[in-house]
Each structure stands twice: as structure tokens, then as C-alpha cells.
């Protein structure tokens, strides 16, 4: 993709999602997603990674409006849908679809494959003729590697990989422009994962799709993603081009995360230094000011526990939320860095 001609399709600005977890008389707020910003360009795959509980799935559900944001903006193709009514969201839901992590729980066990895939087509009135709807479902099944006779079967009659293919066909049914894929291969056998990833890449080229690919499989994310965002406890820690982030991670958390990727060659693995994190994980409940990673960071100083770092551009198209990123990585520049929000406004 030509970097100069990239057009923002999705802009997430200062997105927040807080859950009330009050117990007895103690008011508690869980900051699942806490003031994150990023841009997804048309036609690219933006990978969102982080360990379990970091808020990446919640982010995906916020973007497709399965959750109502506590604050912030979700701008799709120039329109902010964060606080739109359900009536005004109909066009948005048609243009942005989701592939869920659990291929069985996301399918209605009482509906046939034909009914599952055609439900959105009927709801949005894309095709009204019954025979044409069936023909469309058969076409979609063949696109995802299934057969047309599968349309009359129920979800329990399929394997995990086949169920996920049905979920992908359902997502494609409305001819969306963007698909949020929430760990679409994590519940599948390793032998099936590569097949699904290759199929997603082929479908992206054929239908000119844009992906937000959420995953914890770091090797797979590098394979499929153009750019990557790294999350930790509801905060965005680093954003950059895929190869740049993997070859030279700048945030201490990204460095430790990537050092945990298994390497098949034992000689190479022995020569590499794995970063072992120490310290306690900060609680996302009623979070205090400061960097969320400070309690586990080997570079942390007093400022890290007192002041929340902004996501700043420290190199071209490279954003990091760390007070001491330049000292840690030897990055010294005379130019003024900009925040991610300012950078996005310049592009728009």
C-alpha cells in the first residue's frame, strides 16, 4: 500500500469504556478501554495485540457498537457514530461487520446456515426474492470453502473451522467495507489457522476489505498486518508499521511482549535474551494517574507513577506512550513531536 495515498476509513479518538463494578458501598469503575486513539486506513489490515485482559476485544465491540462508549469518537468515513441512535446506525452496521472469536457461540444453534447467513440480507432488504437470497448464500458458502448443500445444516453439524467459515460468510453477506476480526483463529486447530488466514487475505483482495485484526498470536499478526497497535490494561502503548514494531520495538512492554515469541531453532532461541517481567500488574479498577506498565517496567522512575504518558510520535509514523522512550532507545531528535491526535488531524 502506498503510504502517501492512504485514506483514513476509521478514526478512533480518545475512546473510553468504563464498567461499573461497584460492590456493596464501595464505588468501583473498571477502565476496560481508557482514552485510546488510532487510525485504520482504507484497504489495510491494522493488527491490535496485547495480553489477555488488555481491552482489545472490548475495543472491537465498541467499534461495531455492540457496547456504548463511555466517551470518545468512532469516526467511520467522516461520520462520528459514537453516540448515534440505533435508527441512524443501520447504514453503519451494514458497512462494518464482525467475525467473533468463538465460532459456535456466535451462531444460533436453532437456525440453519441458510437462515444465519441470510438474516442480515433480509433485515437490510438487500435482496427480497427468496431464490435470489438462496443463490447469494450458496455463492458466499463457496467463497469461504464450503459447499452449497451445507446451507440446510445446523451449526452443531460442523467442525470448528467450518463454523468459523460460516461466520466469515455471514460477515461478507452485506458487502461490508470493513471487518473487525476478533481473534478469528484462536479457537481453531493449528492446521486450520493458516487456511483461514490465507482465505481472509484472498477475500480482502477480492472485495477490497479493510481489517481490524485482533489477536494475541504475535507471529500471525505480523504475517497479516500492515500496521500494529499494542495495548496494555486499556491503554495504547505503541503504534507503527508491522516490520518496524517487530524488528525494533520501542516501548518496554512491546519489547518484553515480542521477546516471548517462540523460535523454532533452539540455537537462535538460546542466543536471544528473553525479558522476564517482574512486579505486580496494576489494577484497572479505579486506576490512578501514571503509566499502567510502570509497576512492571525495569526503566520506571517516579514520574512514571505520577503522570500518564501521551501517545507521541517519536519517529515517522511511530507512536509510543513512554516518558523515557528516547533515553531507553537512544532516539534523539531536534524536531517537535506531535501527539497521535494532532497527527491524525493533520492527515484529515
Describe this structure in words.
The protein has helices spanning 56-63, 90-95, 113-123, 130-143, 160-172, 190-207, 218-224, 242-247, 252-259, 266-271, 302-306, 325-329, 340-347; strands at residues 8-20, 29-41, 45-49, 71-76, 79-80, 96-99, 178-182, 210-214, 227-232, 235-241, 312-315, 318-320. It has 348 residues and is α/β, with parallel strands linked by helices. It starts with 7 loop residues before the first strand and ends with a helix. Mean pLDDT is 88; it is low at 332-338.
Care to give the gist of this entry?
This protein has helices spanning 56-63, 90-95, 113-123, 130-143, 160-172, 190-207, 218-224, 242-247, 252-259, 266-271, 302-306, 325-329, 340-347; strands at residues 8-20, 29-41, 45-49, 71-76, 79-80, 96-99, 178-182, 210-214, 227-232, 235-241, 312-315, 318-320.
What labels would you give this structure?
348 residues; alpha/beta; eight-stranded mixed beta sheet; four-stranded antiparallel beta sheet; 13 helices; 33% helix; globular
Question: What's the count of strands?
Answer: 12
Uncertain segments are 332-338
Question: N-to-C SSE series?
Answer: EEEHEEHEHHHEHEHEEHHHHEEHH
Structural class: alpha/beta
Strand order of the largest sheet: 6-7-8-3-9-10-12-11
Radius of gyration: 21 Å
Gap between N and C termini, in Å? 18 Å
Main sheet?
A: 8 strands, mixed
- Tally of separate helices: 13
Please indicate the percent range of residues in DSSP E strands (runs of 2 or more): 15-25%
Report the principal-axis shape.
Answer: globular
Calculate the mean pLDDT score and round it. 88
In percent, how helical is the residue content? 25-40%
Amino acid at each position: 500500500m502506498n503510504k502517501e495515498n492512504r485514506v483514513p476509513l476509521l478514526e478512533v479518538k480518545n475512546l473510553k469504556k468504563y464498567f461499573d463494578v461497584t460492590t456493596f458501598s464501595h464505588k468501583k469503575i473498571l477502565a476496560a478501554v481508557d482514552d485510546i486513539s488510532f487510525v485504520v486506513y482504507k484497504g489495510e489490515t491494522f493488527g491490535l495485540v496485547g495480553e489477555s485482559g488488555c481491552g482489545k476485544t472490548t475495543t472491537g465491540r465498541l467499534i461495531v457498537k455492540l457496547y456504548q462508549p463511555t466517551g470518545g469518537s468512532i469516526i467511520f468515513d467522516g461520520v462520528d457514530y459514537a453516540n448515534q441512535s440505533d435508527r441512524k446506525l443501520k447504514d453503519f452496521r451494514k458497512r462494518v461487520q464482525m467475525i467473533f472469536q468463538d465460532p459456535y457461540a456466535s451462531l444460533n444453534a436453532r437456525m440453519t446456515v441458510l437462515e444465519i447467513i441470510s438474516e442480515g440480507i433480509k433485515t437490510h432488504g438487500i435482496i427480497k426474492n427468496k431464490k435470489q437470497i438462496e443463490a447469494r448464500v450458496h455463492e458466499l458458502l463457496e467463497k469461504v470453502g464450503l459447499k452449497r448443500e451445507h446451507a440446510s445444516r445446523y451449526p452443531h453439524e460442523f467442525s470448528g473451522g467450518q463454523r468459523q467459515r460460516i461466520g466469515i460468510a455471514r460477515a461478507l453477506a452485506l458487502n461490508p467495507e470493513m471487518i473487525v476480526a476478533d481473534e478469528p483463529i484462536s479457537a481453531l486447530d493449528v492446521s486450520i489457522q493458516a487456511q483461514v488466514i490465507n482465505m481472509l487475505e484472498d477475500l480482502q483482495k477480492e472485495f477490497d476489505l479493510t481489517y481490524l485484526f485482533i489477536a494475541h498470536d504475535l507471529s500471525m499478526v505480523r504475517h497479516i498486518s500492515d500496521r500494529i497497535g499494542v495495548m496494555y490494561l486499556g491503554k495504547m502503548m505503541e503504534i507503527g508499521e508491522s516490520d518496524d514494531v517487530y524488528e525494533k520495538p520501542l516501548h518496554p512492554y512491546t519489547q518484553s511482549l515480542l521477546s516471548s515469541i517462540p523460535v523454532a531453532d533452539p540455537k537462535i532461541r538460546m542466543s536471544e535474551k528473553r525479558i522476564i517481567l517482574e512486579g505486580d500488574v496494576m489494577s484497572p479498577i479505579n486506576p490512578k494517574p501514571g503509566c499502567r506498565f510502570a509497576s512492571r517496567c525495569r526503566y520506571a522512575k517516579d514520574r512514571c507513577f505520577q503522570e500518564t504518558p501521551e501517545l507521541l510520535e517519536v519517529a515517522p509514523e511511530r507512536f509510543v506512550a513512554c516518558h523515557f522512550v528516547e533515553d531507553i532507545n537512544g532516539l534523539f531528535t531536534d524536531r517537535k513531536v506531535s501527539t497521535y491526535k494532532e497527527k491524525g488531524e493533520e492527515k484529515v
